[in-house]
Amino acid sequence: MDKAQGTVDGNTAGLAGETIVEVKGRTAGYTAGYKSGYITGQENYKTQKSAGEVAGKADGLAGNEAANLKNQSQGYQDGYNASFETSKTSHDLDEIAGTVAGFATGFSGKPATDLAGKSAGYTTGYNVAFTAGKRTYTDQKK
């Protein structure tokens, strides 16, 4: 009974991403179960965290809003949130750079630049601003 409870407690701690604690004042069975359960829970946490990192990076780089993670595991949430913020910032900065370059190119009357290999953020910013810059260029020529 003690070992089973220790396994459940250890697994719960591992799945939550908690640091393993030294179990004091418990039976040898509980302690062994806790350690075993913790290792299993921690492995699952890391797997879920990895999946969250991949999804968070994809959403951030695409410029999406953060996903609702209410029904996801703690590991998935931790991975998603850390990766999303970094990737979203990268997307937003790329979009700003694309906006500046797109408007400058359009306003100069030059044809649009080949955007192959550019990020989604840069491409979005460039295309919107190029159109506005081109329109301004054309209006000034009238």
Describe the structure in your own words:
It is a single chain. Helix 2 packs parallel to helix 3. By secondary structure, this protein is mostly helical. Helices cover 74% and strands 0% of the residues. It contains 4 helices and no strands. The longest helix has 35 residues. It has one domain.
pLDDT under 50 segments (min length 5)? none
Total of DSSP H or I helical runs spanning 4+ residues: 4
Report on the biggest sheet: none
The overall strand count is 0
Structurally, the number of domains stands at: 1
Q: Which value, in Å, is the CA radius of gyration?
A: 25 Å
Helicity, as a percent range: over 70%
Shape: rod-shaped
- Separation of termini? 87 Å
Determine the strand fraction and express it as a percent band.
under 5%
Mean pLDDT: 93
Q: Name the structural class.
A: mainly alpha
Query: What's the SSE pattern?
Result: HHHH
Key terms:
142 residues, 4 helices, 74% helix
SSE diagram, text form:
Elements: H1 2-15, H2 28-62, H3 74-107, H4 120-141
Helix pairs in contact: 1-2, 2-3, 3-4
Give a brief outline of the structure.
The chain is built from four helices and no strands. The chain is mainly α and 142 residues long.
